[in-house]
Fold this sequence. Notes:
Number of domains: 2
CATH architecture of the largest domain: 3-Layer(aba) Sandwich
Mean pLDDT: 85
Distance between the termini: 34 Å
Structural class: alpha/beta
Number of helices: 15
Helix content: 25-40%
CATH class of the largest domain: Alpha Beta
Order of helices and strands: EHEEEHEEHEHEHHHHHHHEHEHHH
Shape: globular
Number of strands: 10
CATH superfamily of the largest domain: Alpha/Beta hydrolase fold, catalytic domain
Radius of gyration: 21 Å
Strand content: 15-25%
CATH topology of the largest domain: Rossmann fold
Amino acid sequence: MARYATPSPAAPAVVQPTNMAALPNAVITNATVLSTPGAEPPPAPAVALIEPPSTPSTIVSEPPVPAALAELTIGSLVKEVEFGTTISVDTINQLQAKFYPDNNQLPPQFAVDRFKLRFKSRNELGHWVSIRAEMFVPKVDAPAEFPLFVYGAGTTGINNLCAPLDEDTHGRNWGQYQVHLLSYAAQGFITILPHWQGYDDPTRKHNYFIAGLEASTMLDATRAVYELFNKNLLTNVLARPAQAVFYGGYSQGGHGAFAALDAASYAPELPIKGVVGHATAPDVEAILRERPPLAPYIVYAYLNYYGGDVINPEAVFLPNWLPTFYADASTKCVDEAYSYYPADPKLLYRPEFFEALYTGQLAATVPAFKEALEINYVGDSPDTSVPVVLFHGEADTIVTPETHDRFVTRLCNLGKNVSYKLYPEVNHFQTRQASFIDSVTWMRNILNGQLPESQCSAFFNSKFE
C-alpha cells in the first residue's frame, strides 16, 4: 500500500522574503473580516454521534487525491483574520513564570500581537474546509523579519468541545498552547497553532492521528501566514515572516509536524528549515500499547475514516465498554478519558486483541487495521536536507523512551540529521517546559547558519553496541 495521500503538489505560490486564564481576553477590535460574517456554521450545541459507516470500505485505501491549489488565485486560503490584543512583556513574564520552571525561562524580547484567523485546507475528499487558528506576532516599531514556527497541539479529545484553542473558554487545562507559542513569539518567532481538521465542524469529529490530514493542515496554515503578509491583510503590523519555516509539535502534534515534512511536496515553495518534536508520538500502534485510554479515540477515528471492514470496536474492546462506546469516545475530552478508561489494558481490550497487540501479531488478527497503523507511522520523508530535533523525557510513560529510540533509529536509517535530548525525571507532560531554551537555541543556531551535527552515530554506538 502506498503512503497516505495528501493533495497533489501545486505550482509554487508567490512567497515574498520577508495557565491561559491570565492571558488578556480583550474585546476584539480593529478587526479585518475577509468573509461574510456568519458564513461559517457555528459549532453544534449538542453532540452528534457518528455511528459506523453504513457502507464501509473493504480495504484500507488512500482517499481521493484533491485538485491542486493552482486552481485558486493567490489570496484564497485566508478566510478571515481578527486582531485580538497586544500582550505586554510584563504579562508574558507572568505567564511564563506559571508555565516554565525557574531554570528554563527566557526574558521576553518583544511584546506580542495575538490574532485569530480562519484559513482553508483540503480534506480527504478534496473539499475545502475551514480551520481556526491563533497566530502570535512579535510587536516591533520598524520593519523586521522573523522565522515562522508552525505548531501542532497534542491530544485534547476528538469532540468539538475539546478543541485545544478553547481550553480557557471551558476552564480546562489541556496544554496551555497559547502560552507556549506566546513564549516563542516573545523570542522573535511568528508562531501559529492551527486546529486539527474536524474541530469547529458540527458535521464530524476530529480524525485523530490521520497523518495526511495533519500534513495538509500544517502546510496550508503556513501558506496562509505568508498570504496574510504578502497581501498586507494585517493593519499596522511591521513584522514579516522570513524565508524560514520550522514545524513543531507536542505528542500528537509532533506526529503532525513530521507528517508535514513527509508530505512537503504538497507545498514545495515553503522554505522548511527544521522540525522540532516535543514528546513526539510517531507510532500510533505504540500509543495503543503504551496509553490504552487513548485507544477509543483511535478506533473511533479509524473506523469513521477508513471504514468498518478495517476496524470495529467489537474486535478491540471488552463487552462492557461497547454499549456506550460511540457516545464515550466522541464526547470525552482527554482529561475525562484518562480518568474514565483504565490504564490497565487487560481491563479495556478483548483478550485476543490484547495478545495480538503485545506480541506483534496484529497483522495476523486485524490485518487492515495494522496496515492503517503503518500508513500513519510518520518520519519516512526521503528529504535528508531538513534537520530534526527530538526532545523527550526519560520518565515518559505515554510515549516511552523505547518507542522514542525506535523512532530515532528510523530517522537515522534514512540518513537524516537528527539531534535529540533525553531529560532525566521528565515525564510526557513536562517535556515542552523542560526543553524551551534548548528548542529556541536549536532553531536560532540553524538560522545563524550552524547546521547541527547529526547525533545518529553516537546514538547507534550507545544503543546498539
